[in-house]
Design a protein that fits this description.
Helices cover 28% and strands 31% of the residues. The protein is of the alpha/beta class and 204 residues long. The protein has a 7-stranded mixed beta sheet with strand order 2-1-3-4-12-11-10, sandwiched between helices. A 3-stranded mixed beta sheet has the order 5-6-9. The chain has a two-stranded antiparallel sheet with strand order 7-8. A hairpin with a 2-residue loop joins β11 (162-168) and β12 (171-174). α1 (14-26) crosses α5. It is globular, with a radius of gyration of 16 Å.
């Protein structure tokens, strides 16, 4: 089976995310065909979507200008998975605490941009994530803070008491950059949750 994966390619680690998606798919015996999204008309053909890091105001402007924003909302309304990382999380949130960012309102959460500090304050931390057996090596770079989450939002991981990974329906958002390691388990968690559950049930 081949999975069609779209990566919004305005900014961010597009190739790194594409590699992680392919690794996650291979772990389930599937192939992933990854396409870069810069214009409308691509999202409707995608099974899964990824909103990478970068600059959230620039990303949100392009999505609105090209009409990609409504396509992404339709994708989520259809129950298809999305992984939104760092700036992608900001754009996917309900409230970015910044009028310059046109959020997609995919995740019922309020986010503070760059709350973890500047580029020089970047760090890596072993993160306990619900659904993963071992800690994930999370890389935080000018990371946003998830300040508040709605009642229906599942907190998958926290750091110093603050949520840094959440799930709202088919959408997973992370404050960190999971693509900057060789570990593709976050992409696996976001895009293949049913296969993971089946594997766990098979063990027991």
């Amino acid at each position: 089976m081949t999975v069609s994966a779209g990566v919004v390619a305005v900014q961010g680690d597009v190739s790194e995310h594409a590699d992680a998606i392919r690794r996650a798919a291979r772990a389930h015996g599937e192939d992933a065909e990854v396409v870069e999204i810069r214009t409308s008309g691509v999202v409707p053909d995608c099974d899964i979507l990824l909103l990478p890091g970068g600059e959230s105001t620039a990303i949100s402007r392009l999505l609105a200008r090209e009409g990609i924003d409504e396509e992404i909302r339709d994708h989520v309304a259809a129950g298809k998975p999305v992984l939104a990382t760092c700036a992608g999380l900001i754009v996917a949130s309900a409230d970015a605490n910044d009028d310059r960012v046109d959020t997609l309102d995919l995740i019922d959460a309020t986010v503070d941009r760059n709350a973890f500090g500047r580029q020089v304050d970047s760090f890596e931390a072993p993160l306990d994530v619900d659904g993963l057996d071992d800690p994930f090596p999370a890389v935080f770079i000018r990371a946003p803070l998830i300040a508040e989450v709605g009642d229906g939002v599942e907190v998958l991981a926290s750091w110093d008491g603050d949520p840094v990974a959440v799930r709202d329906g088919p959408v997973v958002g992370t404050s960190f950059h999971p693509e900057l390691t060789d570990d593709s388990r976050i992409h696996d968690l976001a895009f293949f949750p049913e296969e993971q559950q089946e594997a766990e049930e098979a063990v027991f």
